[in-house]
C-alpha cells in the first residue's frame, strides 16, 4: 500500500527551527518528484517547495525562500524540510506529496501524507 508519513512537527517559538520528515513506502520513491504543501486554519492549501527525483533541483515559494531547505535521501525513502527563522505565519498543517510528473506535483501530486501540525507561537 502507498503510504507517506510526516513527522517532526510541534510547537516552536518565533525565530526557532524545526525539521520535518516524510517517509515513503509502497511506490518507487526515487522516481518521484516530492513536494511540501501547507494549510493554515481557515485558509487554502499553499505550495511550499518541490525537489526533483534526483535531488539536484529545488524550488521554493517566495514566502519561505531563504529560510526553508528541502532535501531527500533516496536510500532511506525520506523527504525533509528544514525550517529556520520561523514566524507565526508559518503555523499550518504541513503535507508531503509525490508524483512522477513535476508539473503535476507542483499542483498537488498523486500521493499525499496525512499532514502534521507546525505551530509557531510565544
Topology:
Blueprint (H helix, E strand, L loop, with lengths): L2 E5 L2 E3 L5 E8 L7 E7 L5 E7 L6 E3 L7 E6 L4 E6 L8 E8 L2 H6 L3 E2 L3 E5 L2
Structure report:
With 122 residues, the chain is mainly beta. It is built from 1 helix and 11 strands, in the order βββββββββαββ. The longest helix has 6 residues, at 102-107. It starts with a strand and ends with a strand.
Sheet with the most strands, sense and barrel status: 7 strands, mixed
Q: Would you count the extended β strands for me?
A: 11
- The pLDDT mean sits at 97
Radius of gyration: 13 Å
Order of helices and strands: EEEEEEEEEHEE
Q: What is the 3D form?
A: globular
Structural class: mainly beta
Strand percentage lies at over 45%
User: What's the end-to-end separation, in Å?
Assistant: 40 Å
Q: Which blocks of ≥5 consecutive residues have pLDDT under 50? A: none
Helix content: under 10%
Number of helices: 1
What is the assembly state of the chains in this entry?
Answer: single chain
